Amino acid sequence: MTNRREVHKKTGRKGNHLPVITLLTDFGTADYFVGAVKGAILSVNPLAAIADITHEIPPQDLEAAAFTLLASYGTFPQGTIHVVVVDPGVGSTRRPIIVSAGEQFFVGPDNGNFTYIYDREPSHQTFHVTAEKYFRRPTSTTFHGRDIFAPVAAALSKGVKPKAFGPPVTDEVRLATPLTPVVQKNGNVEGRIIHIDRFGNCITNITRDIFNDEDATLLVKEKPIQTFRRFYGEDSGSPNELFAIWGSAGFLEIAVNNGSAALTLGVKRGELVVLDRS
Fold first, then answer.
1. Residue 168 in 3-state DSSP?
2. Looking at the domain assignment, is residue 177 inside a domain?
3. Is pTM, for the whole model, over 0.85?
4. Cα–chain-centroid distance for residue 181?
5. What whole-number distance in Å separates Cα of residue 256 and Cα of residue 233?
6. Could you tell me if residue 245 is inside a domain?
7. How many helices (H) and strands (E) does the chain have?
8. Which range marks the domain in which residue 194 is found?
9. Number of other CB atoms surrounding residue 71 within 10 Å
10. If both were cysteines, with which of 33, 92, 135, 217 could 27 make a disulfide (CB 3.0 to 4.6 Å apart)?
11. Average pLDDT rounded to a whole number, residues 113-125
């Protein structure tokens, strides 16, 4: 049986561990899909360490996948390989790609899943996966997560370099909503709600490097939000009041204690948020 020392000797990797391979999909857990992806990885690299980020992305929701990846990838160690399969275009001409960014790797379809990684890691490199020798055979046209992305990630984990899989590309597909808000000449900021979590908290694309004080008013659908809190349950004397808070992902959020800010405001992802400093 091949042991870790033999794998490190073959791949040139140092240390007593192989890179982690994470999975982020919209597969859910009721079907065989997640298990089959893990099996395809382990068939190529039986020593792979696999971590589930989530399999509960709403079906075909590229924006949710992009945000979830952004909020989680920074917690993983150098060399981690992230497999992201939210893929409404599976079987079409959309490209399978590998992205090298922030000393980590990202494997999945070229459909916008990695938009926020491109924005956060501007020195990234992207490669079009064309080397079919790394694919699982036969290759299904409906399950590239198992037959393309899983074995490619496993090969990466064994030391194959990204450039071995295909040529570099610079015209990656990106989502319409940018990660960076617009700062106006008067200092006001025009941001967007880029994610609504399961609690109804509205996560904007406004970060501390753009706004680092609380002397401002948030305007959402012309409704002013002037209260800023340090934690969700902080007592302000108005238990049902909408407030702003810095969330764990590093973005300014809009919340209401024990309720849904999204329902209270009647907003959806993509809604304009104005930070008024006047």
1. strand
2. no
3. yes
4. 18
5. 9
6. yes
7. 7, 16
8. 182-276
9. 19
10. 33
11. 95
